[in-house]
Every structure is written in C-alpha cells, then in structure tokens.
Specification:
By secondary structure, the chain is mainly beta. The protein contains two helices and ten strands; from the N terminus they run αββββαββββββ. Strands 1-3-4-5-6-7-9-10 form an eight-stranded antiparallel beta barrel. A hairpin with a 7-residue loop joins strand 3 and strand 4. The radius of gyration is 23 Å and the shape is elongated. The N and C termini lie far apart (54 Å).
Amino acid sequence: MKKLIVAAVAAVSSLAFAGTWEVDSAHASAGFTVKHMMISNVSGRLGDVKGTVEMDEKDMTKSKVDVSIDVGGINTGMAKRDEHLKSPDFFDVAKNPTATFKSTKIEKAGDKYKVTGDLTMHGMTKPVTLDAEISAEMESPFMKGMMVRAVSATGTINREDWGLGWNKPLANNGVVVSKDVKLTIDAEIAKKPAAAPAAPAKAAPAPAKK
C-alpha cells in the first residue's frame, strides 16, 4: 500500500512540472544554408513551422519535441531556383509537402542540449542530432498568464541521406551544390494559462410547499 501511495505522489509531482508548449508560427522560422559551386553560401527559408514541446520543467531531458515544417513554402529569393527545389530533383513537394521532426532522446550538454530525433523529409526518415538551447520563461505582454520561451536549434545533415541527390560536376572536381546542409530553427513557444475551474452548478430551488 505504501509503495502505491509513493508512486501516486511521484506521478502527481511529475504532472505538476509537465506542460504542453505550442510553437508560435508567427514567430518561428526554419532556414538552411548550402555551398554553391564550392565557393559561396546560398541560404533559404522553408514555410510555416508548427508543433509542440511536451516539456518536463523538472527534468528537461524527459521532454518531447514534435515539429512539422511546410517545405512547399521554400524561399531562397529566386523564383526559378525555388521551383527547381520544389521539383522531383529535390523535395518533390507535390508528393512530400512537409518535413517533420520527432525527438527520441534529449541530453544535457553544458547549458545547452543535444536533441536526437527522426527527421522525415522527401518521404524518408533518418535520425539526426541537433544542438539546441532554450531561454528562461517569461510572461507574454500580450496575454496575461501566458508564458513564452525562445528555442533555437542547429545542425548539419547530408541531403543525400534523404534522397536529395541532384547535382552537376564542375571542371575543378567540385559540384554545383554541396552535400552538407546547415539547418537552423528558431521559434517562440507558448504555454497558455490553465483554464479556471468551472463554477459549481447551483442547485435548483426546492418547489414551494402548498
């Protein structure tokens, strides 16, 4: 009986420190940078970032991240290049309009974190580890009781691991587009205030005695 009580108290304590934080898409972005012709950097952004962080305030390594990114909103500042990136040569957005990341492990790394998860892109799922940092929480000036944090994650992937293999060789033994792609995700996440408990229903008045 004592063990059951201890387990129940531990479960309640854990819930007290857990909460769902939602990505504020209006203040979130996913970007990338690749080498062009092995000499210069070309950067771009993807579309809307949505998702949640199931955050364990007591032990951040027990938190979970689930994010979805609109690949069809890709923008590198050149329409012709963007159309090529949307084509079957690269993302094939007609068949694969979104990319997702779901964490499988979070580890402390100094004052930052190593977030490992499954990145699904171009119809393929591969593991990737991102370096992440998260700010202290603060109350939003736009909604009383709503807490907000800033999250930033970076990492480098080999695009060919996800079947994004298009390229052209150059005379100097280089290629037009590098294999390595640097990723950057920045977002504000918000936790809405807990709803106030509903007021107890008033009992109907007793019928008057005749």
